[in-house]
TrEMBL record:
Biased composition (Acidic residues): 271-294
Keywords: DNA damage, DNA recombination, DNA repair, Endonuclease, Hydrolase, Metal-binding, Nuclease, Nucleus, Zinc, Zinc-finger
Cellular component annotations (GO), alphabetically ordered: Slx1-Slx4 complex
Domain (GIY-YIG): residue spans on this chain: 22-108
UniProt GO MF annotations: 5'-flap endonuclease activity; crossover junction DNA endonuclease activity; zinc ion binding
InterPro entries the UniProt entry points to: GIY-YIG_endonuc, GIY-YIG_endonuc_sf, Slx1, SLX1_C, SLX1_endonuclease, Znf_RING/FYVE/PHD
Superkingdom classification of source: Eukaryota
Region described as Disordered: 270-294
Top-level EC class: hydrolase
GO biological process: double-strand break repair via homologous recombination
Function, in words: Catalytic subunit of a heterodimeric structure-specific endonuclease that resolves DNA secondary structures generated during DNA repair and recombination. Has endonuclease activity towards branched DNA substrates, introducing single-strand cuts in duplex DNA close to junctions with ss-DNA.
Name assigned to this protein: Structure-specific endonuclease subunit SLX1 homolog
Length: 294
């Protein structure tokens, strides 16, 4: 299933990944379901541990997999893009790949808005990715495009920026990178808990300390404190932010409006707050990151 040839090649890749610091990846899943309703559908997600993440998707949402992928698999992780400097940059990449028609960087390309009539889901997602790698801010990053399934492997129509590389084979996350991800062999967590997009830690009491974005299509989830600190980045020396840009969708946020929305939602059950919006049948929208225990 994977195409690395020798042990040597694997350790070389391992080294490459390690040199880039912590692992932040944005992956593409394709459904191998026998049910024609789901077969070939794709899903874009973010992870710090691809091996565990694919297991969670295939176990379903009770085990940390996204609701969008639950019972529509088995899923194959066909490719992963990594080498992002931090989780925010990776999450922004994930968000744009999921929703090219809403992304501020991609919405000027009308050809990305829809899947073409005869195009399959994989081809459509590959077309979006090809465009993304050539436009700012991503075209300046030292990204690695890694094929995980040789059956899907294909050439890009336009050459990638020179600092990017295309490789195939499994991802090996070195011990030094596993500071945040737990051991790859550990069983998946039984109960799913939301995870903060900013600090990549579990949100213990979501009803009290979780904040989202005021843009209803944005899936930002974070600790109130983490978002406050993020927004205060522009206003050092203060304790309460006035506002700033959402780290994922770049919508202008006002701190007062965020708190007001939080108060309004606090009486609404969690499931309703999280209702999946059917923005597009082509790409599943879900920015849930996995639960990573300390
Ligand atoms: Zn946090
Ligand atoms: Zn947002």
């Amino acid at each position: 299933m994977n195409s690395y040839a020798t042990q040597e090649a694997v350790s070389e890749q391992e080294e490459t990944v390690a040199r880039k610091g912590h692992f932040y990846g944005v992956y593409l899943l394709c459904s191998q379901s026998l049910d024609p309703r789901y077969r070939g559908k794709c899903y874009v997600g973010f992870t710090v541990n691809p091996k565990r993440r694919i297991r969670q998707h295939n176990l379903g949402c009770d085990f940390g997999g996204a609701r969008k992928t639950s019972r529509k698999g088995p899923w194959q992780m066909v490719m992963i893009v990594h080498g992002f400097p931090n989780n925010i940059v990776a999450l922004q990449f994930e968000w744009a790949w999921q929703q090219p028609s809403l992304s501020t960087r991609l919405k000027m390309y009308p050809e990305l808005r829809r899947k073409l009539p005869r195009e399959n889901y994989f081809d459509y997602n590959f077309r979006i990715l090809s465009k993304m790698l050539g436009v700012g801010p991503w075209h300046r990053l030292p990204l690695t495009v890694r094929w995980l399934e040789t059956d899907y492997e294909r050439a890009f129509d336009v050459p990638l920026p020179s600092q990017m590389e295309i490789v195939s084979g499994k991802v090996s996350i070195s011990a030094s990178q596993r500071k945040r991800a737990d051991d790859a062999e550990a069983p998946p967590p039984v109960a799913w808990a939301p995870e903060c997009h900013l600090c990549i830690q579990q949100i213990e009491q979501p009803e009290r300390s979780r904040l989202g974005c005021t843009n209803p299509t944005c899936r930002l989830t974070c600790h109130m404190l983490c978002l406050a600190n993020y927004l205060l980045g522009d206003e050092p020396g203060h304790y309460i932010p006035i506002g700033g840009e959402c780290p994922l969708c770049e919508t202008r946020l006002s701190w007062a409006a965020l708190l007001q929305r939080k108060r309004l939602l606090s009486g609404v059950p969690e499931e309703l707050q999280d209702q999946e919006d059917d923005l597009s049948d082509e790409i599943d929208v879900d920015s849930e990151v996995e639960y990573v225990p300390d």
